Amino acid sequence: MRAARFHAPGKPLTVEDITVLPPGTGEVRVEVKGCGICGTDLHIALEGSIQLPKTPITLGHEAAGVVAEVGPGVSGWVTGDRVAIFPNVACGSCYPCREGHEVLCLNAQVLGINRDGAFADSVTLPATCLLPLPEAVPFTVGAIVADAVSTAYRAVVGRGALRSGERVAVFGCGGLGIHGIKIARLLGASRIIAVDVAPGGLRRAREAGATETVDAKEGDVAKRIRSLTGGEGVDLALEFVGLKASVTEAIRSLKRGGRAVVAGVGPDRVELPPLRSFVGSELSVLASMGFTRGDVQTVIGLAASSRLELASSVTEEIPLSQINEGFRRAFAKEGDPIRIVVVP
């Protein structure tokens, strides 16, 4: 089968013929019908800012497809089933897993990070990673659900606990931020203020449902957000960038008693405001890591019922042979893509 193999940062992926891995006990092999190009893939392959434990490896963790082969001991799945893939293979025995927090598993194996991923004709993985994908959800949409959409859903709902009528600021209008805006609108946010430095990102934010936009290049974002909210600030600030500056502005944009959720990941160290104002304003700062199976199932249900529109999030579909060009365009934000999906 064909697979896009990563050998070293800065070098093109090579589409190679590799041996099909038959499913072992408790495993399935899935014929990949779509796999989204995520920022994590770009950090690994182009920037080298995420180091992998082994190479070469097949990248790709946002995937959906059809069950092609079922291994011994697997029940509930048959050849031909449409599935979305939960990319985190948890150990099930560490204390986060025992407490029901497999997203925080200490020994997790993640597709495209420390086990072969889905930029390939097929991928073999534990059957526990499969989630049913209804006919109403296209494979390309099903692919991006398990990360680009569900990560935003967890930040807005699971960690941010957004309530109808609240005011929201979204920092970063890439794949995560755009879906954060769509989810906030679905849940009844009264104001959604989108913040970015890219005109294309701000345009997409307005299309997704942002009520106002703020160009961060113009400076003092928090002051401008306060100006838009009658001097009060927002109830919930969502940070999807992963930079110290944007985390700082997200916290500064909060009203008294407000909540900031940081889902962006990066090497920066962040600082809290002076304790007098931080404690005195009773602010909350929360981290949000990834997503749960329940989050993915909820998002699939929202997409299947057409309550959450996701077709427009698939900016482009490309064949596996063009994956390096897809990486280049995604990294350069050429055409302001939300998600480019590889269809092997």
With helices defined by DSSP (H or I, 4 residues minimum), what is the helix count? 10
The termini sit apart by 10 Å
Helix content estimate:
25-40%
Query: Which class do the helix and strand fractions yield?
Result: alpha/beta
Note the beta-strand portion.
25-35%
Instruction: Give the tally of β-strands.
Output: 18
CATH superfamily of the largest domain: Medium-chain alcohol dehydrogenases, catalytic domain
Evaluate the radius of gyration: 20 Å
Mean pLDDT: 96
CATH class category name of the largest domain: Alpha Beta
- pLDDT below 50 for ≥5 consecutive residues: which ranges? none
Provide the succession of SSEs.
Answer: EEEHEEEEHEEEHEHEHEHEHEHEHEHE
Give the second-level CATH assignment, the architecture of the largest domain: Alpha-Beta Complex
CATH fold call of the largest domain: Quinone Oxidoreductase, Chain A, domain 1
Backbone shape: globular
Number of domains: 2
For the biggest sheet, the summary is: 7 strands, mixed
